[in-house]
Amino acid sequence: MSVAPVLARIDTDLDAALARLFDLLRIPSISTDPAYRADCARAADWLVADLAAMGFDASTRPTPGHPMVVAHHDGPGPHVLFYGHYDVQPVDPLELWDRDPFDPQIEDSPAGKVIRGRGTSDDKGQLMTFIEACRAWIAETGSLPCKVTIFLEGEEESGSPSLVPYMKENAAELTADIALICDTTLYDSRVPAITTQLRGLLGEEITVTGPSKDLHSGMFGGLAMNPARVLARIVAALHDDEGRVTVPGFYDGVPEISPELRAQWDGLGFDAAGFLGGVGLADPAGETGRSGLEMLWSRPTCEVNGIWAGYTGAGFKTVLPAQAHAKISFRLVGTQDPHKLRESFRDYVSAMVPADCSIAFKGHGNSPASVMQTSHPAFEKSRQALTEEWGVEAAFVGSGGSIPVAGYFKTHLGMDTALIGFGRDDDQIHSPNEKYDLESFRRGARSWARILGEMGA
Amino acid sequence: MSVAPVLARIDTDLDAALARLFDLLRIPSISTDPAYRADCARAADWLVADLAAMGFDASTRPTPGHPMVVAHHDGPGPHVLFYGHYDVQPVDPLELWDRDPFDPQIEDSPAGKVIRGRGTSDDKGQLMTFIEACRAWIAETGSLPCKVTIFLEGEEESGSPSLVPYMKENAAELTADIALICDTTLYDSRVPAITTQLRGLLGEEITVTGPSKDLHSGMFGGLAMNPARVLARIVAALHDDEGRVTVPGFYDGVPEISPELRAQWDGLGFDAAGFLGGVGLADPAGETGRSGLEMLWSRPTCEVNGIWAGYTGAGFKTVLPAQAHAKISFRLVGTQDPHKLRESFRDYVSAMVPADCSIAFKGHGNSPASVMQTSHPAFEKSRQALTEEWGVEAAFVGSGGSIPVAGYFKTHLGMDTALIGFGRDDDQIHSPNEKYDLESFRRGARSWARILGEMGA
Description:
The structure is a homodimer of 457-residue chains.
Chain A: H1 4-12, H2 14-25, H3 37-53, E1 57-61, E2 68-73, E3 79-85, E4 105-109, E5 112-116, H4 124-141, E6 147-153, H5 163-169, H6 171-174, E7 178-181, E8 193-198, E9 200-209, E10 215-216, H7 217-220, H8 227-236, H9 259-267, H10 272-277, H11 292-298, E11 301-310, E12 319-320, E13 323-332, H12 338-350, E14 358-367, E15 370-371, H13 377-390, E16 395-399, H14 404-413, E17 417-420, E18 435-437, H15 438-456
Parallel strand pairs in A: 3-6, 3-7, 7-17, 8-16
Antiparallel strand pairs in A: 1-2, 2-6, 4-5, 5-18, 8-15, 8-17, 9-13, 9-14, 10-12, 11-13
GO molecular function, one term (chains A, B): metal ion binding
Keywords (chains A, B): Hydrolase, Metal-binding, Protease
């Protein structure tokens, strides 16, 4: 069966595909905020209805958090599992959006048409490229070229607490020959990429408590310890002057990249100044002596994602706050152990707290880094399909982000994962004015159609 | 004219006085938040109506911010100016209040009955003690024992931006023989106090900007500078390990207290551990080698009153924030110059900002410290009146708080100020569950009645 008519159908059906995507984008499925719980359920139901209408055996599956979507479709070839997530990031600061984040629209941009809205790139627009590829195959041929299971979660942006338990309980149903994930970027706007290594993630929230209540800084200031001052000292101490993370044992399991990979990455001609220039910066801020791609793909980090204490409204309030808080995350590489690191971090930070203060920790998500076995035939087939669609050799690249599920698939289901995505570095995911290029959406769907064809060939 | 019937009238009129105070407390006159602008105006109008009904020539006076209240009443003796403020602090965190902050009520407490609500102690309850004293004198004798001007502002909790310009433009109308302020505390629940030295205040808000927008910490983390990390390093660097403030020149103009004052303060038997124990702390956190009262009354401080950056809501968001903010204040003593210190702080902090970040400053209020000339006869008359009312020798004390207006009265109107207040250290001003002891309110009014009588004698 030639893929050509499937590709043609994707092109002629584009407006209808966009209308479907917009329906999904309008649902504010912010998983981290309990206020949007019903919206998350609504997004899952919408996907089940869409997949069922295409002939998938589709259903939502309850979890202690937001539901999973699981859908099966028979086919002649190998069994592929496609994973995506229907939840999205919060939208604050809302005032920095040029429009309602949940009222998507097509806009013109210097680089071509873009779809603007929360979740367009991360991950609703990307997951719909795979669903539209399946729709075109079924519409054109009555079936799919391989057996497909679609597995979508609604907690990816909030640490995926239900994912591993669900995966373990349903291992037989979810295990396939290869996993496919569409949640990454092109290398650049012309070069398609298969991501073969991902950083892991460890999230920690710390609360330093000093006095039993907020105090007047005139009445108590100078005598009473201020927990915001303690917290600032902790956060400031997490990096040394060379940009290295100071948590004891932090670099255990952090490998140097191989000379071969270094040569391939050097060949990509990454322009750190240009990359940073796009967001108003100029100087690489990571460890002294590391290249830009190393800082992004193969070196671990420690970041403050949030910090707050005391009065943060308009004007001034001379309060000495009772508590100070920070959300801190680590990007992990190699074989860094998130559990060991969490313990080490907690011990290290606790030792910095003076006798008059206490500290409490709340663990958020954690996942080790992933490095794929690219000898699996799916990688070469995908590379070939992508190269044909984009007209330029597809690259094997690293990613600074964390897609923990790829590691879980390996650990719990024994599956390798081909991470193939069509996002771009300027998509502003997790930021105001998120977008997804219309061309990414169209050629993404075409790419998956070709990959499914190659897999089934 | 004996003061006895005036005191008796205060006691018999107590319930009506409380009803008046509660009317004023129910107006949420939060000056720092523009959302409460109309409420501030309403509080001013309420006071004018009350004073006019007593026979004062009273009116509100417009300013670029919240209105002033000015009221005059003739009398035979010297001319006293009473100052207070009708604005209150914000109430957040609201969830820590046991009841609506603006629905005051009388509650039982282990130490006796208290009036609970925002502004009960700071400063509506205190300013009404003076007004009730005037009311009793007028009701009982038809007049006041001295000439009284009442001057109330509505911006004390937000840096008093209109105060000095208004004072300069209306110097002739506002200048009296002595200023009286009721915005301080008893030394303890038994010992009345006249505060003779006050710390000054300097407020600064800093914003560190890194990337031009919030970034995904996976995509950019490790390469892009995080302004929250920069801010934490700045805040952490403001104190050394001995608790001293590191801003260059900070200790210029900070005097050692005289041996006489040290002896008097030592005689007060201040219990630092007990004072801190009341708010869940134990260890004095100020400069190594200083006594507790020095830390509170005669040493300058630097405090973080607020800090915020990135995602601070429920759950976790792996954002690398574009900006990080802090509200920082300094308590000043001796002849520390707030203007010089502001410049020194800005230079010092700017030098800590890496090339890829920028920093912006917003100045909030500033005032130098005040030390009163206690040789003015009003101090001895007030001490005598207080000693008679409370049955224990009144003390001359310092205060860690800042009441900038006392310095302005000296600088711009040439008046000394007797600071006499009836608050207590556990009043939780600026905190949830603020209260004012019913006995402070009753004996405060009686104290002012006696002081007015002594002044006019």
